[in-house]
Amino acid sequence: MTIAPHKTTGAVYTKPEVVEFILDLIGYTSDQNLVESTFLEPSFGEGSFLIEAAQRLLESWNGLSPENLMNCIRGFEINHESLFNVCEQLNALFGKYGIDPSTSQRITNAWLIEEDFLLAPLPHKFNYIAGNPPYVRPENIEPVKLTYYRSVFTSMTGRADLYIPFMQKALTSLIDAGSMSLICADAWVRNDFGKGIRKFISECYSLEAYIDMYGLDAFETGVGAYPSITLITRKPQTVDTAVVTAQSVDRECLNKLSAQILSNSDSIHRYKNVVKGSAPWHVSTKSSYSVIDYLEQHFPTLIEAGCKVGIGVATGADKVFIADKDIDIEEDRKLPLVTNKCVHGSHIDWTHKVLVNPWDSTGKLIDLGLYPKTKKYLEAYKEQLVKRHTAKSNPELKWYKTIDKVSETLCTESKILVPDVKNPASAFTLDQGDYYPHHNLYYITAAEWDLTALFALLRSGIARMFVEAYSVKLGGGFVRYQAQYLKRIRVPLWSSLTAEQQDSLINAGREYRVLDTEFMEELYNLDPGMLSFMKENNDGC
Known about the structure:
Layout: H1 16-26, E1 39-41, H2 48-61, E2 73-76, H3 80-96, H4 101-111, E3 112-113, E4 126-131, H5 143-152, H6 163-172, E5 174-185, H7 195-204, E6 206-212, E7 227-233, E8 241-245, H8 251-262, E9 269-271, H9 288-298, E10 307-311, H10 318-321, E11 322-324, E12 334-338, E13 353-356, H11 372-379, H12 382-386, H13 395-398, H14 408-412, E14 415-419, E15 421-422, E16 429-431, E17 436-437, E18 441-446, H15 451-470, E19 479-480, H16 483-486, H17 499-510, H18 517-523
Parallel strand pairs: 1-2, 1-4, 2-3, 4-5, 6-8, 12-17
Antiparallel strand pairs: 5-7, 6-7, 8-9, 10-18, 11-13, 12-13, 14-16, 14-18, 15-19
């Protein structure tokens, strides 16, 4: 099939120190007999991995027949200029080892393949794979190509970045016991779009090591995502996973780190059951690891404990559907609305904005004929509203609908409001049933738990511990309190608590008081001191 190139190549180049570290991790070192093995870089860009691999191969080669090098390396690249530049670098390198220009060109012609790795047939499987796959969001991939990728690579679900199918195909390209190490944005190990590739890895592969590169300049240019490095082998998981946080990209530091990982040094954190089907990976070196592991085995999730996690209303036209409270429409079409800017942990600052509600109590769009003021207001914006995607399926009937249905009862229901991005100290705010949440707010309701008690529990560190373990890292101490992370929080069943414990939780919520770690340990049947790490930052979470 003929498919156009990507709108963007997603090229981000890796620093040499990190390249060397990754090649060391997979064991592609010059003291090995690399001539008898095969190496693959799925998208070589400017050649940072491939050139270093070639250097190591030639150091291992010992001047045997150049023909022995012909099948040792394969690299794919769709950018012709990049391929030409890498070819020139390889030819210069071969010359230093006494390989004549004609033979050198034949080797580079065999090694470098100007094709899309995801579409190209592979000549054979590989002992070693390393690289930095391209970062391309799905909206920047040609629709025909995106459709094809999704049909071939089962791991590419939801908003999966292009590096996800690169990982899947690379993994399938390993020989048995072969090793792969890639540097990628870390979101896939936690987010929903990574479910497919996490499940894929869990079925046939072993996560030997996970290296968090948070806050480090691992690339030649700045990127808007935090990277991590994985070391994966094609064999069943039989060893605990090494989980480390790199402190520097200094060559000496990384050399020491790779030696510690590969030698099973006691200085490295090693965890069981990091890979669990499609579930997010808990890859943290913090003291919370053992606690989270215990709680996940012995306590239900928020949902299992009778709570609901939802998200506020998306309108598709906030400038129309969000208005001042004195707007001239029928009063029963107004719902007091709060956004993430209104919630502050201890209180809510309502900005006197309302939601213009086009839905009745049964979940159907209102008959505008019954609401002449609302009809007049909305019809003034009809031309704008009709153009929205949410209205296009039936513009005559649905032109004034919001993206999400509005449930009036949610407004009067007690709920805990949670902004998407927030400093942990003010992440949870209790609404006693006065407001409707905007889509930049998540909310938690409870059928069995007393909500004031739940508020006290969540803001006392348990929620922060789980969210920080699984969420995407942001700068400035902020974390993303998204529904997928909130749903991973473990809580006791309300009915399992003593009356005294229930009263203590309710009083703490009313008084806006952070619970003592000792009380939390009692609630969760933890040994004394297991939550001591919370004390240093437990100022309301």
